[in-house]
């Protein structure tokens, strides 16, 4: 549980690159917090982003925004970590492991030695590996170390399906699960439109059949690569995902989101962080929600876990 010496209206963002600054901007506009501290290895970059974003507060809500140090994050309710090397064209998220694990080996002890009682939200890629790394290094309870997981991937799939079905994407309930990366799985077998199974909805509303479900899954998986190829980075979508997760925590919404957290035997998987639907509230990851998977989806999920475990072993994490 988030302790009483935590300021529930304060957020810290560590890393002021594209993702960090976009996330900070989204959080400023959200009205969730009254105080935000930005940290970056480049202090001037953090100061510049804080100044720039703070100039928008007269058009939003009053908020104290400033660049600070690790001493300033002690009472933050949520510590958002976006620091790390960027994914380059042609790179997979797993290619970033060594570089970003080393960065986390510097960042996480700075948090744990100050006995911060907020929730760590890992956004840096590969997010599942780094969520696992942050949990192991920090020694925090597993509910308080979560990753942004496949929240964005799930949003991408909903957006694609919404266009195809000509319905509001918010009415589509479906999840991308497993690794936030090349071995992710579209759990289509449990997908529905406001409770109506996908196939039934198509037939009953004269939408025809959704063809090439595998192609949709590939489009979701490759979305980041396409964006990176065109503009060298992705940041708006993930920034909105960060805002959404923070909303669920600060408002204690008990929302079900596919965040990354440590697996403890679910689906025969343990000791690895994966993105699975979970109840998110004031205590972070409050409990995982089992969803129905067909045989193929379950096999792919277990293979996804094996892929990540191999990376963990290869990097002696």
Brief summary:
With 317 residues, this protein is α/β, with parallel strands linked by helices.
Description:
It is a single chain. The chain is α/β, with parallel strands linked by helices and about 325 residues long. The protein folds into two domains: about 140 residues, Rossmann fold; about 160 residues, L-2-Hydroxyisocaproate Dehydrogenase, Chain A, domain 2. The protein is built from nine helices and 14 strands. Strands 3-2-1-4-5-6 form a six-stranded parallel sheet, with helices on both faces. It has a three-stranded antiparallel sheet with strand order 7-10-11. Strands 12-13-14 form a three-stranded antiparallel sheet. Strand 2, helix 2 and strand 3 form a beta-alpha-beta unit. Helix 3 runs parallel beside helix 4. About 45% of the residues are buried. The mean pLDDT is about 90.
Helix-strand blueprint:
Layout: E1 7-14, H1 18-30, E2 35-39, H2 43-54, E3 64-67, E4 76-81, H3 97-112, E5 119-122, H4 127-138, E6 145-147, H5 151-165, E7 172-173, E8 176-177, E9 185-186, E10 192-193, E11 196-197, H6 198-204, H7 213-231, H8 236-250, E12 255-264, E13 270-281, E14 284-288, H9 295-314
Parallel strand pairs: 1-2, 1-4, 2-3, 4-5, 5-6
Antiparallel strand pairs: 7-10, 8-9, 10-11, 12-13, 13-14
Helix pairs in contact: 1-8, 3-4, 5-7
């Amino acid at each position: 549980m988030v302790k009483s010496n935590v300021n529930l209206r304060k957020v810290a963002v560590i890393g002021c690159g594209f993702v960090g600054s976009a996330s900070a901007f989204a959080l400023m506009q959200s009205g969730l917090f009254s105080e935000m501290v930005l940290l970056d290895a480049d202090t001037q970059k953090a100061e510049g982003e804080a100044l720039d974003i703070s100039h928008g507060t007269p058009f939003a809500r009053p908020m104290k925004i400033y660049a600070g140090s690790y001493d300033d994050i002690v009472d933050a309710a949520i510590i958002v970590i976006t620091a790390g090397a960027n994914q380059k064209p042609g790179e997979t998220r797993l290619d970033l492991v060594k570089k970003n694990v080393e960065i986390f080996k510097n960042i996480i002890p700075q948090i744990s030695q100050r006995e911060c009682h907020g929730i760590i939200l890992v956004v840096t890629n590969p997010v599942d590996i780094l969520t696992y790394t942050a949990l192991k290094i920090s020694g925090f309870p597993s509910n308080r170390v979560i990753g942004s997981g496949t929240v964005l991937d799930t949003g991408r799939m909903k957006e694609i399906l919404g266009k195809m079905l000509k319905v509001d994407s918010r009415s589509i309930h479906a999840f991308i699960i497993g690794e936030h990366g090349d071995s992710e799985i579209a759990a289509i077998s449990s997908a529905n439109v406001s409770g109506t199974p996908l196939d039934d909805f198509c037939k009953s509303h004269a939408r025809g059949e959704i063809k090439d479900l595998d192609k949709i899954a590939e489009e979701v998986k490759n979305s980041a690569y396409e964006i990176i190829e065109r503009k060298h980075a992705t940041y708006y979508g993930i920034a909105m995902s960060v805002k959404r997760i923070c909303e669920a925590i600060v408002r204690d919404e008990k929302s079900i989101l596919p965040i990354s957290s440590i697996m403890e035997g679910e689906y025969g998987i343990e000791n690895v962080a994966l993105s699975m639907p979970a109840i998110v509230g004031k205590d972070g990851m409050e409990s995982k929600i089992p969803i129905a998977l067909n045989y193929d989806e379950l096999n792919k999920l277990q293979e996804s876990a094996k892929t990540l475990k191999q990376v963990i072993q290869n990097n002696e994490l």
